[in-house]
Amino acid sequence: LRTTTIDRNATASMPNVVVDEEADAAASAPASAPASPSAAAHDLQPAKKLTPEQRRAGIALFLSKHVTKNGRLEHGACPRAAEEHGVSIGCVRDIWMKHRNAIMHPDKYPLDVSRKKGSGCKAKYTAAQVRAAVRAVPCRYRHSLRTLSAKVGIPRSTLHEYLKQDGILLSKSVATEGREGKDGRSSQGEDDDEITARQQQQRADAQKELERNSIRRIETQKIREEMKDYYEKRQARAIERAKKEAQEEHDRHVEELRAELRHEFDSEKDRVLYQLRMEMHRHQLELTRLRGELETIGGAKRKETGAD
User: Fold this and answer.
1) Contact 47, 18 (CB under 8 A)
2) Bridge partners, 3 (sequence order)
3) Which residues contact 61 (CB under 8 A, 6 or more apart)?
4) How far apart are CA 141 and CA 136, in angstroms?
5) Which of 14, 63, 254, 307 is the most exposed place for a label (fewest CB within 10 A)?
6) What single DSSP character describes residue 16?
């Protein structure tokens, strides 16, 4: 099939789109001229090697040729456009609803069929800035986005976006990228001396970091030993204090029992003494009565003997 480019005067501000002349002619032909199924299927095949923007612009141009005077599409225009361009009817309807003014009045409204991504705000960091910031961070801090974000001061979401774009955050690839090209020179303009100096600096930084980690481990072990001794002494003091309190409680309980027994003993002794005193008093009263009786009997006998 022979292809051509849409005239700019006819499409106004529409982008250049490659369309099929025979498919366009078949679409604009009267409906009373049926074609064979195989020929129709061949004519309705979508144009190959078209970008999505070109296909959407072609659908918009097709719809612009089938708009009635009252601003509505002709009957069956959406299904024919969908079959011709190999898309769904819903896609055609979305293009019509979104670009209706541009399709009906191309001289007043520009047609922009590109799909814009993002919020439209200007990016805070460029790829070059992110790459430079990442290259300044040692490789040992690039193993996670959290650590890298803390080092460069860029949000993790932004780093993740640039990572998906060109993979500039991989630690090994970033550290070694651009070292030697086909000509033996650095693609980033660095010579061998600079690379060697950077590697030596990285090794020195790594060695210092290892020494610091070793010192931190020794200090941590020392602190752990001190804390262990402290808690052992604290536990020993607590055990000793508990034993002392238990002994004091035992002594106090024994003393209370002794006092209680002493009190009971004293009470029993007083009761026995009282009983003994009462018994002696009763005996004394009995002796006094017996003495009185004896004196009475003795007086009576003395009187009888005196009478004789």
Assistant:
1) yes
2) 20
3) 6, 11, 14, 17, 19
4) 11
5) 307
6) P
